[in-house]
Amino acid sequence: MFDSMTELNGDDSKDTILFMSEAGGDAARSVTFLDILKATSNFSQASIIGSGGYGLVYLAELEDGTRLAVKKLNGDMCLVDREFRAEVEALSSAAARHENLVPLQGFCIRGRLRLLLYPYMANGSLHDWLHDRPGGGDALRWRDRLRIARGASRGVLHIHEHCTPRIVHRDIKSSNILLDDSHEACVADFGLARLILPDRTHVTTELVGTPGYIPPEYGQAWVATRRGDVYSFGVVLLELLTGRRPVEVLPAQRRQWELVGWVTQMRSLGRHDEVLDHRLRGNGDEAQMLYVLDLACLCVDAAPFSRPAIQEVVSWLENVDTIGKSSEDVTNL
Predict the structure, then answer these.
(1) For the whole model, what pTM was predicted?
(2) For 182, which DSSP code?
(3) Catalytic one among 76, 128, 138, 171?
(4) Domain termination site, one of 63, 87, 119
(5) Which phi and psi angles does 301 have, rounded to 5°?
(6) Is 171 a catalytic residue?
(7) Do both 198 and 69 map to the same domain?
(8) Which parts of the chain span the membrane according to its record (predicted)?
């Protein structure tokens, strides 16, 4: 199914990355390391499309037009070859495949080099649409945001409950929720922390979360949990509802503004409606949005065991359609 690289000066016959077709059938096509070098212009800066605590991400455009996202990991931080390969094969197995997860299609071990191959998602991330793309937030109506929340929750449910061993994501955030050609949400970067040496996870906070998404209990002990993932997912729900970033710098006041604290304060003052994205108001969806706001606030509860499990989150989101509808509408759903 997958093949790893030999050492840097290894046999060219083994110098191949194998990755499965989208259908996941038996026919796999091979891509050589030289193909990847050529497709990324020798990992040029112009090919970089992302970065993070794990390394850089490059866009690889193959000769037949196929586009891949190639994640180049920091080799000094990764597991040794055999352990790395075992973990990657688990992450790329059928059990780790779901329509709301970005599939790992191939990998490469070549000396100290570690590459992971994913399909390229041309529609970018939820973060792009909400915060960076001009007009992106306006384009995402409530029904679009709800569909994204539902899809992402199902992806998280799959890694929490249906993978063996179960996977804690550790870094759920809007930039790790990618949109496919149909704008369906796909959760990216799940399981990457399992590829890192245990004594290297202190090197960057991105290996255990991103500021604004990190649950408060991680400040006492750097032990990632599924309840911690639920907290981070709750922050993403708040982003969808408010259209605001999890953390914003307020230069005039010389302080940092945090979304979770602001929403909590506004709710305590009974000003629930005011936290909703102004671009979503006036369309008759307020009841549904407030229903999801209640869920988001349960997810970001400071007490881990007061948070719902991800299965409850999925069920809550599936029930949103019944909110604000007449009994006749509910019958016809």
Answers:
(1) 0.87
(2) T
(3) 171
(4) 119
(5) -55, 140
(6) yes
(7) no
(8) none
